[in-house]
Amino acid sequence: MSDFDAIDALLAAVGPQVELPPPDVRRELRERARLSKAQVARTLGVSPSTVGGWESGRDPVDETRKRYAYLLDGLAAKFPAGPGTEPSPSPSASPSLPASPSLSSSAEVEAEAEAEVEDADDVESLAVPEPCVLCGSPAGHRVAGFAQHLDPADCRPATAPGSAPEPSPDATAVPPAPAPEPPAPAPEAVASQGRSGTRRSGRPTGPAGRAFQEPHGPGDLIGEAVRAALDEHRGDIDAALAALLKRAIPDAMRLLDETRKGARYDIVAHPWIPDILRKQTSRGADQVWEARPKWTRRELPPGRHEVTALDINGAYLSALKTHLPLGQLEHTAGLPHDRRRAGVHLITPPEWEHEAVLPNPIGNRDEPGPLWVTEPTLRLLLRLSGPKHALCAPPEIHESYTSGATENLLEKFRVVLKDARDAAIAADDEVTLEYVKAMYSKFVSTMGESNYNRELYRPDWMHIIRSQAFSNLWLKALKAHDEGLTVVRAMGTDELHVIGDWHRVFPEGRGVTEVKTKDVYTAGSGATGDTEGTSGTGETSGTGDRDLPGEGE
Hints:
By secondary structure, this protein is α+β, with helices and mostly antiparallel strands. 34% of the residues lie in helices and 14% in strands. It has helices spanning 3-13, 23-32, 37-44, 48-54, 62-78, 101-121, 187-191, 219-232, 237-246, 248-260, 315-319, 375-384, 411-426, 430-445, 459-482; strands at residues 123-131, 138-143, 146-148, 288-289, 294-296, 305-312, 324-325, 330-333, 341-348, 371-374, 396-406, 486-491, 495-499, 515-523. Strands 4, 7, 8, 9, 10 and 11 form a six-stranded mixed beta sheet that branches. Strand 1 (123-131) and strand 2 form a beta hairpin. The chain starts with a helix and ends in a 30-residue tail after the last strand. The model is unreliable at 84-122, 157-216 and 527-553 (pLDDT under 50).
């Protein structure tokens, strides 16, 4: 590319943005065409909440803006507004009967109610009814990808048990085919129904937990891979494990694909990425600060103390449950935090006045002023500034790159890995345990700019997941402090040193919700109260904000 070509490309990139109609017109055009937010979102590669944001005043940028404007222009041409213009009738409506005022009023109320449900659950109207996923009767709407009744009263079996259908008056008529068996909803969709057993729209749901889960699911892929490796190497554990570790990344991506089948959201694997998430130099880092803890208490209470170094199990595995942006990140400035979205944020962090007893939530940072942080760090600061804790002032948000988000995007992937890990520990199966550990740790570390994983390029996810692990460790330190323990050190993702009876605060074990002892040592003195003698504490996990630490298992 010549210098002038580069200049032309730059001028094209900074040219005026394509004009968009006002937000209320955008929504009116979509509703006039009887399109749901979910349909528009899938077409444009964003989330339904993003489309809702555009219809509430937020504007898309760059290529997404052009495609959205093209869609709106097409809708305006096909469904022009004007006197006598009415939306196309529903397929079930009778064209020969005019609608009465009472029916029109009822339809308006129903449309408003459906719009409210659509905002919460991505409702689509079906031109041809499909079997309800809960009862099997024909349903006119699809919710989160599954046909369902909006009204619980409509959700009932098509034919009562033990009753036969009434015979047709026409003796020669062919009996109707039995209704197809309703497909089982994906575990992720069931999980989104909530602990109470009902969705926000009031529709009935199945039992909580892993209802409708197939008896042979993606978890079998892990066992099959381990058995195949052991067979291939004739029971040589070291050779089989070495082979499994080499294929951990492609195997993790295959497992991810399997766990995403039938899921509510599609993964955008290679979206446009803002410059702040790109490395500044070939060997450098990007501009995102992960808030990694690297803190040691300045002074201990007088006397000598027994310090326990606790090892946090499966830190990155637990961190897979975090708010991840679904689509392409969109830039905003001057807006308050939206909990339905996630991404990275330029903030001025608050002053931290508790360094003597607790680490700073943003980690060890030498330079003052604004910095780019991830969603978990921002949410942690907002939580600590709230009335429950009131430990600091709220952070000041200057600008953000965010997209519509969900906390359950990788939940089934995480659960499959966790179950395999738990089973391996129970069976004392170190081959499977190390293989599973490599799958999730390498999955996290290679989703950025990596030559080892070309299937997924989400540096925003990488930073968010790692920051979630750091945030989880910080919250454990806060819990220890609130329960009367003396917090001595917090490092990386998995290292927490405390003084006191930690068994009454944390359960001991190898599960992901448990901790285990890494080291026990004596520190402090009656004269100075320092922390000398803290050797053997595994400080290799605190070598900087960018390094990936090893995890204690």
